[in-house]
Amino acid sequence: MISHFQYKPLYKSSKIPGWSFSFYFQGTKYHGIYNKDGSIDWQGSHPDLKVINDITKQIHELMLFHVYE
C-alpha cells in the first residue's frame, strides 16, 4: 500500500492537464508524472515490476478521487 501520496499540477493553467506526484512504498519515495491519458512517466526509480501494476491502479484511483471529483 502506498502512503503519503501528494500531487500538484504541472502547469499554472488548470486547463492544461498533467500532474507531478510522489508517494512512499515500502520505505522508498517515488516520483512521477501523471499524464492526461492516465499514463505514468516515472522520474528516477520506479516500484518493482512485480507490483507496478497494482501501484499504478492505486495512483489512478487517487487521481480520479482528488482531481476529477
What's this entry about, in short?
The protein has 69 residues and is an alpha+beta fold.
Poorly predicted segments: none
Shape: globular
Helix fraction, binned, reads: 10-25%
Strand order, sheet with most strands: 1-2-3-4
Oligomer: single chain
Query: What is the terminal-to-terminal distance?
Result: 22 Å
Description:
The protein is α+β, with helices and mostly antiparallel strands and 69 residues long. 22% of the residues lie in helices and 36% in strands. A four-stranded antiparallel sheet has the order 1-2-3-4, with helices on one face. The longest helix is centred in the C-terminal third of the chain and has 15 residues, at 52-66. The chain is globular. The mean pLDDT is 91.
Secondary structure elements and their pairing?
Layout: E1 3-9, E2 19-25, E3 28-34, E4 40-43, H1 52-66
Antiparallel strand pairs: 1-2, 2-3, 3-4
Which characteristics define this entry?
69 residues, alpha+beta, four-stranded antiparallel beta sheet, 1 helix, 4 strands
